[in-house]
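User: Here's a chain of 158 residues. Predict its fold as tokens.
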Amino acid sequence: MSWLERAGMRFASSRAGGWVYDKICRRLDKVLLPLSRGRLSTGPTQTLLLRTQGARSGRSRSVPLAYVTRGDDLVLIASKGGHPQHPAWYHNLRAHPEAMVEIRGKRETVVAREAEGAERVELWRRAVEFYPGYGAYQKRAGARRIPVMVLSRIQSPR
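Assistant: Prediction complete.
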């Protein structure tokens, strides 16, 4: 990770940085990621574009998110910068677990589930190693336990 990425991660873990990332950088990434085929992003190099179906509206929604991997699975942290409420994309995945991810210009269909128990503990540890700001977000979230979502790629029939 470059010094610029490390500095960006430190800033993003602050309250002000979380707001900037959520309100400004994500909007930029919605445009940058598809146009650059995933080569340009305001976030970390491991950023994907998640396309979900709205939990209530049924409309297509997209959001850029940092991710970590575990084997073939993608792991997302529903931190919302430490906000006391879960992010909309989390509710969307709970209502409609099948979604689309775009990583470096490649689109794949995934199915989501929430990690629990020992699996959640291990994935949370990996995520905090990747981005220590998640620990600060959990403190800011108070009583809300930040969900860890596992996205498994759906194998297309051969």
